[in-house]
Amino acid sequence: GAFSGDGEGDGGAMWDDYVGEAPDVADGAGGGGAAAAAAGLDDDGRVPDILGRGQQQGQRGWMRRQRRRRLQIVDDDGGMNPEDEAANERSNGSGLDPMGNFNSGFNDDVAGGGGGGGNGGYNNYDNFGDDVGLGGVEWGLRPQVNARMLMCLAAGAENLPDVAKEPNAFKCDVLGSARESLLDLWGSARGQMIPLDVIQKTLDLAFEHTQKLLDHMVDLWSPWEDDGLTYTLNELNTGKEWNHGGIKGLDSALGPHKLFLDVGSNLGLTAMGISLTYPGTAVVAIEPAAPSWLMQELNLRCNALSPQPHIRSVLAGVGPKNDGLGKVMWRPSSTTSTRTWTPKSEHKDDDIELAIHLRNIRTVLSEGIPDDLPYSTPISVMNLDCEGCEYDLVPSLTEADFDAIDIVLGELHWGYIPSEKLPSSDRGRKTHERLCRHEAFARDKIECCAFPDLEVDTLVDTASTVKELAGSLCDGFDTWAEEHHLNDIPDDVGWFELSAEWDY
């Protein structure tokens, strides 16, 4: 069931079936699967007996590593000490993350996984090294409660673990102001996320933690120790100006009756930062990966940012036309790495391939534009950080539609996409030339060096060119262009090949 598993790791009760009828927590002989996630540590800080032996050993090793991180004790070779290695070896993938129910991807039963021997965990936590928490992002010990328990509590479930029923179990106001919104989210997720176990396993992966976002303290939901969230928070918290990779200094462009479009919004941190920094700005946050979209919704709703008339979160992939199909690889250990071009050489055991429905930007905006704005509202600022979807979105816009966007921020990915998966050079050239007319790209994207004399739109009266703004960035550009096949990809065959993982 949702919070138990027998010796074979059976389980997987639907959330609807679980409400009010939760089975008892698994017994000491066979507790595996999601029982580990539900249990965490007991009140005395010990590994609970309901975990299988392998999971107990794995969790003890995980606890030791957390203590070592807090004490900043690192072995000379940067690896685990012999005691940790032994625990890791004994558990063999059964619980370095003590969750124990997300080993084989979204095709497993939700509460399945290892009973008895404790199989079913995954060991991506150690991939972060010992620098997690640097740059102002603090993780500490993983909470004992997750988003599944949050949603069950909102629905009135009675037989939850005691830890989930404590008054301060959640910072999200699950029994107060956020309750109706969370129940609405469940209905929305059921209608959009198929199969159902995608929802359940996403909720099992999501944990709540308090972090600083710009000048605000926010309570965020994400996979624990998510590299992507750590990176995004560190970038936003640098306080950079909009034309140097940040979101500061947009006071004249954003505010009431202005529209900010975030394409590839991930867990919603940039959208939250815009909403908090420029109150009243209409925000449309578009995310193609269903697990990230669900956590984004939790972040917006638990921080009282949604549902509000001026902010919308849309589950969609942006393509050149409607009714297209794409595939992305979603990585819990780095949610910002959702992309269509993951090399098999970089594959991780917890990577999940997801099918996504592609729609053109006009269709997505017609669905997502906030109620208090007319459909004809121009995009004031667009943020593009979608791991390559810029090569679909930007060429699909008419010249008039693109010119109507005041400011474009974001990233270009030509230099990261392997040559076998690159779009055609013509598609790349059209994308780059349009984006490089915007200052945030011209200053620090090497792709823009292909257009040294291109005039750049700036917020000051003085005209500038790419060459003037980029400066030394363009030194050695010809070599870079040759190495990354900037001018010799003849067609879009690799780009539109329907896979998220490529054998190279």
- The total beta strand count reads 14
Percent helix: 25-40%
Give, in spatial order, the strands making up the sheet with the most strands: 5-4-3-10-11
Amino-to-carboxy terminus distance:
41 Å
Structural class: alpha/beta
Sheet having the most strands: 5 strands, parallel
| Stretches with pLDDT under 50, minimum 5 residues | 1-134
**Which outline best applies?**
globular
Beta-strand content bin: 5-15%
Number of helices: 18
Radius of gyration: 23 Å
Mean pLDDT: 77
Question: Which keywords apply here?
Answer:
504 residues; alpha/beta; three-stranded mixed sheet; 13% strand; globular; disordered N terminus
Provide an overview of this structure:
- The chain has 504 residues and is an alpha/beta fold.
- It is built from 18 helices and 14 strands.
- The strands form five sheets. A five-stranded parallel β-sheet has the order 5-4-3-10-11, with helices on both faces. It has a three-stranded mixed β-sheet with strand order 6-9-7.
- Helix 3 runs antiparallel to helix 4, helix 5 packs across helix 8 (196-205) and helix 7 (179-192) packs antiparallel against helix 11 (290-302).
- The two termini are 41 Å apart.
- Residues 1-134 have low confidence and may be disordered.
